[in-house]
Design brief:
The protein is α+β, with helices and mostly antiparallel strands. It contains 3 helices and 5 strands.
């Protein structure tokens, strides 16, 4: 398992993408799976930054290759509970101009990954998702 803590700022995304790229190369995982993993990490990380800006702690990201899958875990310490698995589905009917703003990112994450879970424990929010490698 590879695990790192990244500063709570949007500018950390470039470093995060390098982290996932190095992990994929080291674990000999096909690059066709990286888009979904990077997109999901980006959406979840930016939400943690946006909705918990006063927290001085970084956000921990763990990547682990398992049999036929990659498991990714993002942990935000001292966070208010927000269960991404219970977030309402985005309304994708109508044109972009007609739809309400928001919720589309989490909607896409749920479509791109194969499983997603949430846990809030000891004040920390952890989102775990799995991308199958088949």
């Amino acid at each position: 398992m590879d695990e790192r803590t990244f500063p709570r700022r949007f500018a950390s995304l470039a470093e995060i993408f390098r982290f996932t790229a190095e992990f994929f190369v080291r674990e000999a995982i096909g690059q066709q799976h990286r888009f979904a993993v990077d997109f999901a990490i980006e959406e979840l990380f930016t939400n943690m930054v946006k909705y918990n800006p006063g927290n001085p702690d970084g956000i921990r990201i763990a990547l682990e290759r398992r049999e036929g899958e990659v498991q990714v875990r993002l942990t935000d310490s001292s966070a208010e509970p927000f269960d991404v698995t219970a977030a309402p589905e985005a309304d994708t009917r109508g044109t972009v101009e007609e739809r309400p703003i928001g919720k589309l990112g989490l909607h896409l994450v749920k479509k791109l990954v194969d499983d997603i879970g949430y846990r809030h424990e000891n004040g920390a929010s952890t989102v775990t998702f799995i991308k199958k490698l088949e």
